[in-house]
What does this fold into?
Amino acid sequence: DVKVTQSSRYLVKRTGEKVFLECVQDMDHENMFWYRQDPGLGLRLIYFSYDVKMKEKGDIPEGYSVSREKKERFSLILESASTNQTSMYLCASSIVAGDGNEQFFGPGTRLTVL
Amino acid sequence: AQSVTQPDIHITVSEGASLELRCNYSYGATPYLFWYVQSPGQGLQLLLKYFSGDTLVQGIKGFEAEFKRSQSSFNLRKPSVHWSDAAEYFCAVARGGLSFGAGTTVTVRA
It folds into this structure.
């Protein structure tokens, strides 16, 4: 079974802090994604990556950056956390490029910014 | 721009009754369409997907969905709902990443 793990289930940070959310997948997937989930808005794509050291902006990249130094790891970075970034963050991975491939999701990190 | 609309925010259904969740998409080409389910405290799980071919697709847990190009719809159905089907359901279209609808919460009453 594909396993996508996220470093924390719950995280509380202060406004202005730099925040790192880590995601690791164990199935050698090429593609990795970061979403945020908010009530009434569903999931929205922040960034994705098709390969190591490669990244593409999603629908809401403002205030976020990403890093992919190794194939299995994809990090989401909040350079200066703000209260409007309080949300559930979900990481996903899928095999090879192509829109038709199933994405496998991690359990999510619930981030609260005070 | 592509978008996905789930018109129903919340649906309540009796156990054993049928369920239909609506999904409409806006997309310029033949879309790749998905339905995911998120049970309380759980991650997202793929129920089924449509790429091409037969417009009625079968998924896990007894769910099926029908793609109707003329109506730009991909509605999810289950003939007889179980209490364990209480969850939030998301329709999504693929274009790079996934573009999700806002979700429909399903409550099952005994």
